[in-house]
Design a protein that fits this description.
The chain has 1 helix and 5 strands, in the order αβββββ. With about 100 residues, it is α+β, with helices and mostly antiparallel strands. The chain starts with a helix and ends in a 9-residue tail after the last strand. It has a 5-stranded antiparallel sheet with strand order 4-3-2-1-5, with no helix packed on it. Helix content is about 40%, strand content about 30%.
Length: about 100
């Protein structure tokens, strides 16, 4: 009888671990992959949204940083991971 109870506890634990993966980890992983695809497709002259700020990419510095033009004389350096959305892509399936 004791053996049966310990097996059911193990099965229940495995079930909860699988449900945790399906409901939390897998969707977040998928979202991160889409965001990485969006960042990799970034080009010069793309209009982007950075946490509520809209600007235009004027230079891609390296794999982590870009230079963004906010208006005619305001340029900022932005980390690519903080880009929320690319606004002028026609088939933008990343967001």
């Amino acid at each position: 009888m004791l053996k049966n109870k310990s097996y059911s506890t193990i099965v229940l634990l495995i079930f909860f671990m699988v449900m945790f993966y399906i409901t939390i980890i897998y969707p977040q992983k998928k979202k991160n992959q889409k965001h990485q695809l969006m960042i990799n497709s970034l080009n010069v002259n793309d209009k982007i949204l950075i946490n509520g700020i809209i600007g235009t990419v004027i230079e891609i510095i390296d794999k982590n940083y870009i230079k963004v033009l906010l208006n005619t004389n305001c340029k900022i350096l932005v980390k690519k991971k903080y880009i929320t959305k690319i606004l002028n892509k026609k088939n933008n399936s990343y967001s």
